[in-house]
Hints:
heterodimer, A: alpha/beta, Glutathione S-transferase Yfyf (Class Pi), Chain A, domain 2, Rossmann fold, four-stranded parallel beta sheet, 8 strands, B: mainly alpha, Fumarate Reductase Iron-sulfur Protein, Chain B, domain 2, 2 domains, 11 helices, 49% helix, 0% strand
Amino acid sequence: MSELRYLFFLGCTIPYRVTNYEISARKVFAKLGIQLVEMSDFNCCGLPVDPASHEMMLALAARNLCLAEQQGLNIITLCTGCAVTLRKVNKVLKEDKEIKNRINGYLSEVGMEFKGTIEAKHFIHAFKEDLGFDKIKESIQKPLTGLKVAEHCGCHLLRPTGISGWDDPEDPVVLKGLIELTGAECLDYMDEAECCGYTIIAIDDKVALQLTREKLQHIKMAGAQALITVCPSCHLMFDMQQSRIERMFNEQFELPVLHFPQLLGLAMGFSPDELALKELRVNPSKILEAMKTA
Amino acid sequence: MAQKTEAPKKNVEPLRVDPSFKYEVMKEHDGETLKICFQCGSCTSSCPTARFSDSYRPRTILRLAQLGFRQKVLQSPTLWLCTACFTCTDRCPQDVEVASVLRVLRNLAIKKGQIPRIFTELASNIYETGYVYKIPEMRLRKRAELGLPPLPKSSVDKVDRLIELAHGSKLIKSKEEAQ
Lengths: 294, 179
């Protein structure tokens, strides 16, 4: 079997604020035999400045893609925003000669050229297409039987379909299937594929937090004991902002929010400390207790 | 006898409409599909923001852009409330790239000098460090304690050159502002 080797695109949000996601992902990937090659030099994927300047986004993303081409490796990300941006720009530059020539004009000034020789994937996409569910199934040592969770894929894992296209954005099944491999039950809830609101929190925090709040309400209503995410930004909304939402709307959720690699890691037999669960804002001890007694 | 009706309110000032505006939008990458929007409203009814905002309506923005209400569109504060979730794009029965057309409109607003502060912050962070956030030294040291590999330093000079070439300089804070 060929080795699974990727260039690891960490992005900015994870090293800035969500280190526990990275810690748990590295542990889990290693166990699954996925080899991560560190990027020795990268820049912001470009997504945050797309509303302001599409051209700047194209140039920033293209530079990252060129770095991967130079190493001859496909990119893997933990962030849905980085994944959708690198995938989109990769597609645009491969298909649109005019834009490619223009961006290559910029790149030539820094000694680079986009050739279109690599792919970029979010790790859930890579789990589905490259690794396969069987490998994950084999890695489970402590099934999380009895645990009820819900998932939030995040918009950019699924949409736009023209860039994603490997799961149904109206009724996503891939992450759900992966969660069920851990032995946990993944519950359906209302408006599952809806946005967390992160991208507009700096523009209008009221609207953004209402989006998050509504999702938390729906997830609680379904009876989930925890929420599982696969994006650092979505996680910030559901975990870090949860207490602020509780104060703002005088409501209580107390819903632990785990990164998927943390959930998978627990089922693989890693300890909560090894997966940096204590870095989560909403205390997950309730579900850890429940798992012990199950 | 028919009732006397009031004179209709004057609500369109022809001079403020610029029919060339839509072509300006359509010229931009991903802006081409503005012309085929037939105003069904699938975008607004699918929009998560529209449910919680009194004023943000993607369909309305597209119509105003088609009609040429340049100022009204570009100066509208609600233009910035799109979360880029792409539900509108996915559900549009007419294959309008709704979210991308809205992005083109935001880009045009920026060109006209309507720059929400957050974007100057983010762009300037990238210009200064390569990353969109200024990651504190303490965080970088903590990585080592946690056994994580060091975060590479971006080749900032190259990133900056690209930003300048891609006409992004306008978004960057001057040295005095950055102080």
